[in-house]
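Review this:
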Amino acid sequence: GGGCIVYTDFGNDIQELLEGYGFSCTIVIGHKFYEPEEITDVDATYGEYLDKKACAEKYFKYNSIVISAVKAGISDCNPYFGQQKEKSFFYLHRYVALCEMVKGKDVIEVEYKQGSGRGCHVLAGYAKTVRRISFEQADLPLQNSDVDVVICFDTVEYLEMERQRILLEEIQRVLKPDGILVIVTPNKMENMDRLGLKSECPGGGFYQDEFVDFVSREFRHVCLYKQFLEVASFLEKFDTVSNSLNLFEDREQYNPKPKYMMAVATNGKLPELKLSSVYMNESEEYYFMQNSINNRKFQAKQKDNVIMLQEEELGRRAVELDHRMDKINELGRLLQEAENVIKLQGEELERRAVELDHRMDKINELDRLVQEAENILRLQTKQMEESEKLEIKVRNEKGIIGRLNKKFMIGRGERDV
């Protein structure tokens, strides 16, 4: 049956790991921030961050996300891959179709990163040898002309253009002169452009012409196949297992759009291949697809709920922002009023300073006049003192003259007698 876990982490690194175990992950909350002191369960890694808190204070806000991870039921998981049903279905079809081609041959499967290896187990019952190699370095660790078949599924789109070129050269080097490359990549037109998506892979897949041109750089003969899913109705007898079916096409021109493109390439003679096929396994595909649709509807509903919560949060923050803007505007108004008051006070201070200077000039003038008056007064006082002395002297001299006149008159009288 299915199950669900809710996981809280400081990032979404766990999401890829959970999806690898068949969980369908949805981020429920992704906007809650915690300060370091709010977190009680501190592991060693986080402790290292705490040691650097003094020199990186502003970086110590951690985005805590809540991930809802729903595990698919057993019927929704392929027995070989245990991940996304549609993708594993494509993979199994390829391996089953190649079984006859690899009979008695030395085969390597080149992967971007080491996968489950289930596809190699399918081929192991037919091929002479099957090896898996992860292309994460600059070359393939094999001798020249060492293998008969190289299988490379969904790898080149993960590589940048220069590494794509190196990988193709390495594959050509390790293949025998008549060796065969089977390489598969997503159709960029159908997987990206039609859905309005942008690939997160460095290479991003190929358009059809680009893919043929890419493979033709190292291989002279290229045969291109398309891989896709279709809805079909099957009519069979209950007690008969048939390996051949009649194909009825209810359309004038049958030209389905490929989800994947597979190129079979060689520099030798291209062998007669019977790879065009329909793959069916024992699982109930229609019901799986319906469950997948329902699961995606459920995921869409979960995401709608997340969006609704985020919209509510955005609305709350918008109201809070408006409130804060009102406060900021009020503070701005008060600040402007204060600046106006300060300006008026400054102008009044300047006016009073001018008036004070004017008054000081008057005071200085009065001080000068007072000083002059005091000087005149002192001069007048001195003159009066000298005048008084002169009057005294005149009076004294008049007295002397009077006395002399009196003596003179007496003497004259005596002479007259």
